[in-house]
Design brief:
Blueprint: E1 4-11, E2 18-21, E3 30-32, H1 35-55, H2 66-79, E4 89-94, H3 111-124, H4 128-140
Antiparallel strand pairs: 1-2, 1-4, 2-3
Helix pairs in contact: 3-4
Length: 141
C-alpha cells in the first residue's frame, strides 16, 4: 500500500514563488516558481529525505492527517515570522518506495578499472561495494 505525505505549498509575498513544507519529514527543502514546479521539486525533496533516513537505517515517519499538517505549517510560518496565506495549497505527495536491502551482484570490469576502484575506495576508507554505491548515488542526482 502506498504512503502519502501532505505538502503545504505557500505562495510567498515577495513574488519569489512558492515554498513547500513537509512537517512530517525532516530536512525536506523545496520550492518552485509555480505550483506544478513546487510539487515536482517537493517529490524530489521527499525522495532524497526518505532515502537519507533509509541509508541511516531510520524508519520513515508516519504521515499526519490534513488538520495536523495545516496546524504545523501555520506554526512553522509563525516561528519564522512569515505570513500564513489563507490560500495555502495542500497536496498529497506519494512517498517513493525505497528498499535498502543489500543485493549481491556480479559485474565485469577491466582489471585496471577494478584496481582504480579499489585504490579510490581504500583512500576514501570504504569497501569496494560502498565506494561503488556512493559513486552511483553521486552520479544519479
Amino acid at each position: 500500500m502506498a504512503t502519502y505525505y501532505i505538502a503545504g505549498i505557500v505562495k510567498e509575498d515577495d513574488g519569489s514563488g512558492y515554498s513547500v513544507y513537509f512537517p512530517d519529514v525532516p530536512n525536506v527543502c523545496a520550492s518552485g516558481t509555480s505550483i506544478p514546479e513546487a510539487v515536482e521539486n517537493a517529490s524530489e525533496g521527499l525522495y532524497l529525505a526518505l532515502r537519507g533516513l533509509a541509508e541511516d537505517r531510520q524508519d520513515a515517519p508516519t504521515p499526519s492527517d490534513m488538520e495536523t499538517v495545516k496546524a504545523k505549517v501555520r506554526e512553522i510560518r509563525e516561528i519564522d515570522e512569515l505570513p500564513y496565506p489563507e490560500d495555502t495549497v495542500y497536496q498529497y505527495i506519494k512517498a517513493p518506495a525505497i528498499d535498502m536491502v543489500p543485493v549481491r551482484i556480479n559485474i565485469t570490469v577491466p582489471k585496471s578499472i577494478l584496481e582504480e576502484i579499489d585504490n579510490n575506495a581504500k583512500l576514501a576508507g570504504m569497501s569496494r561495494s560502498g565506494f561503488l554505491v556512493a559513486a552511483a548515488q553521486a552520479y544519479s542526482v
